[in-house]
Amino acid sequence: MDTNMVQKGREEKVAEEMSYSFLLKSINDEKMRQRIKLAFDYYIQNANRCKKWDAICSKTLVVLPAVATLASCALMKFPNTNGIIDLMVPIITAATSIVAGIHSAMKYKDKKTAYRDCAENLKNILIAYSCEKGEFGDLDQEEKDELLFNRTEQVILEGYKKLGAIENGNNNSADQNDEVRKMLSGKKREK
After folding, report:
1. Is residue 118 a part of any domain in this protein?
2. How many domains, in total, are found in the chain?
3. What is the CB neighbour count within 10 angstroms for residue 102?
4. Taking the mean position of all CA atoms in its chain, how far away is CA 173?
5. Cα separation of 122 and 19, whole Å?
6. Per-residue pLDDT tens for 15-51?
7. How many DSSP H helices and E strands does the chain contain?
8. Does the residue 9 lie in any domain?
């Protein structure tokens, strides 16, 4: 991997962390601030991981068939190659099939979008909270904190449901979601 790409990736990560760190400073409750920071970090890291693997698989799925085509053409041009090129085409084709299967099964693009949506939703809630706008306007601090907690947990639950649906091939994961919803509905924020 190119060192410039690695450096650029590090710079983007630092810039992204800085873009929400000032929002986290507006939260007075240390436990809540840590909870939201952990959620941000989790969503952003997983979105970036899925983005990376989606790009690797996508590029591989372009390059491998092209190499197989070149190998096939070389086989036609040079038929007496002692079997080396004869083996390349089926090996490359098998590798392409494996990568395509992994790419399809892992659903990197869908997961990246789901993780990124959760991070952006948390960021939007924190912006409203820190600016005391929207649903956070005209509330005392305790009400704001309670609303922040509830909205944050709602985003986390919705993200959990969306990722569960992606993992299950968009099958209904309502049983899991009902259990989580019941658990959260009776939950009050620890102070």
Report:
1. yes
2. 1
3. 13
4. 19
5. 12
6. 676 777 888 999 999 999 999 999 999 999 999 999 9
7. 6, 0
8. no
Cα 32 to chain centroid distance, Å, stands at: 22
Return d(Cα 112, Cα 118) in angstroms, integer: 10
Contact 89, 66 (CB under 8 A): no
Is 112 within a domain?
yes
**Residue 63 located in a structural domain:** yes
Q: CB within 8 A of 141, min separation 6: which ones? A: 28
Tokens of 39: 């959620």
Amino acid sitting at position 144: K
Model-level pTM? Answer: 0.76
Q: What is residue 28's three-state secondary structure?
A: coil
Please enumerate in sequence order all residues whose Cβ is within 8 A of that of 106, keeping only pairs 6 or more positions apart, or say none: 53, 57
Nearest in space to 92 (alpha carbons), one of 123, 63, 124, 125: 63
Helix (H) or strand (E) holding 153, with range, is helix 141-167
168 DSSP assignment: T
Q: What is the 3-state secondary structure (H, E, C) of 80-101?
A: CCCCHHHHHHHHHHHHHHHHHH
